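Worked example

This section walks through a single chain of length 422. The input is the sequence exactly as stored; nothing has been trimmed or padded.
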Amino acid sequence: MKKLVIIGGGFAGVNLARALRKTPDVDITLVDKNNYNFFPPLLYQVATGFLEPSNISYPFRKLFTHQKNIRFRMGTLERIDANNNRVILSNGELDYDYLVLATGTVSNDFGMASIRKNALHMKTIDDAIEIRNTMLQRIEEATLIPDPEARNPYKTIVIAGGGPTGVEIAGMLAEMRKNVFHKDYPEFKGTAIRICLIDAAPVLLTPMSQKAQHYTRETLTKMGVEVMLNVQVKDYNNDKVMLSDGTVIETKILVWAAGVTSSIFNGIPESSIDRGRRMRVNPFQLVDGTTNIFAIGDTCLMLSDPKFPNGHPQVAQVALQQGKNLAHNLKAFFKNQPMKKPFRYYDKGSMAIIGRMKATADIPKPKWNMTGFAAWMMWLFIHLFFLISYRNRVLTMYNWTVSYFTKDQALRMIIRPKESPE
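Given that input, the structure is written out below as tokens.
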């Protein structure tokens, strides 16, 4: 039996494992620091209390129950011993014949310690729950403050990052301000929660079309979101966000969605690490300078795709397609046959939801942009389809239906697990 170890259970890792589940003579071990797979595009709905974590996550062991050649190992990769074909985990070691790194990305604080320490990041289920808890806690604290001026930092939410995550959470908060907060918090009658969206670029949704960018900014502005472009967050200390143009915003809530970076692991040649700390790979996903270590998804950088000479975007579709493509090549590789299918990314388009019945979508073929209700329906359908299990789809559809007709959701609870001594 050939031993294949996959580090990371996101889109790329899970699709690779599933595509190889019926491959004979291959023993697959999938390693992840969590015991569940989750759907990152919907994290912001968990953060704003419109979905429960269980709606967008599913246990790995349940997912692979009937797959005889796939095992799950909960742990964190610490080091790769490439000379002995071994990975050292936080709780032991694993030998491999072939290793696939599908570790995704982590939040990029651009070297600012204050951001790393004080901002609320949006990359994991834990992050989303922390954002939900913190926002609700700050608003509860604000209800106890009689002075309206003293309340302002508690009722001001700053979002750094004008990509899909930043736009979607800003839009969701604007909808909540309109339909929810005045009912839940009568103490705020006559006052408003301030929402600021900040990005260093001159436009929102930089990779998308000009029409999508214009529509998004115009829609968010109409919803009451303060959009600040061409400006960077330079620091966040003592409840003050300092911007590059000298502006200071007092807030107790800074949501950081301004960028991502990959993780670097001991055992990977330094010469193969490129921009964004991504591992450079050949057309067959083999990491430069190695013979049996592959990388897929956000953590890799491929410069050989003719249509994407600067590398692929770090989006879900790339990870999904790379996982399936690598599975096709590995089936030949396991038989000592040459890999014949270099990866070529098929861009199916990009989209972002802004609010209730407000979204934008770029369709590459034919090249056109869709906005409004039609784009919103397309966004809902596609995201529902890509959830990993029928259970997730049913639960999410139920919650979305309730939210649509009531313009509300009863999931805004502050739940903080007791911290362990560790």
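What to look for: The CA atoms of residues 281 and 287 lie 4 Å apart.
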